[in-house]
Specification:
It contains 5 helices and 4 strands, in the order ααβαβαββα. The chain has helices spanning 3-6, 8-22, 37-47, 64-70, 101-108, and strands at 26-31, 54-59, 85-90, 93-94. Strands 2-1-3-4 form a 4-stranded mixed sheet, covered by helices on one side. A hairpin with a 2-residue loop joins β3 and β4. α3 (37-47) runs parallel beside α5. The chain is elongated, with a radius of gyration of 16 Å.
């Protein structure tokens, strides 16, 4: 066939781009240190869910300055009381911070099967 048959992966990428452009975006910013157990639990919780348009950003002491340059909305996001903290943001407006994996699970809903 046509264009799809000649380059199916490009067609799939175009559909993903379209969905991202017209659909709701979901940004999750996790702030903490990479080797922390709570960070690992939060990232596992996020990775168990499929949400089209979801972007996950990890902000730690090593990449904070660079991240804030490419994603300025992360500038004011930090750890709460020294704990790993997740921010669930929709269209760059963030909800209240989350410091417990159980609450993050609740906020994100059921895992993907």
């Amino acid at each position: 066939g046509g264009a799809i048959g000649r380059s199916p992966s490009n067609f799939a990428q175009a559909l993903q781009s379209l969905q991202f452009a017209i659909g709701e975006t979901l940004e999750i910013v996790v702030v903490g240190e990479r080797d922390c157990e709570e960070m690992k639990r939060m990232l596992a919780t996020i990775n168990n869910r499929y949400k089209p348009g979801m972007v996950v950003l990890l902000k730690d002491s090593k990449n904070a300055d660079r991240l804030e340059k490419v994603a300025p909305f992360t500038a004011g996001l930090g750890m709460v009381d020294g704990q790993t903290t997740a921010y669930v943001c929709r269209n760059f407006a963030c909800e209240r911070p989350i410091t417990a994996t159980a609450e993050l699970e609740e906020r994100l809903g059921q895992p993907s099967s």
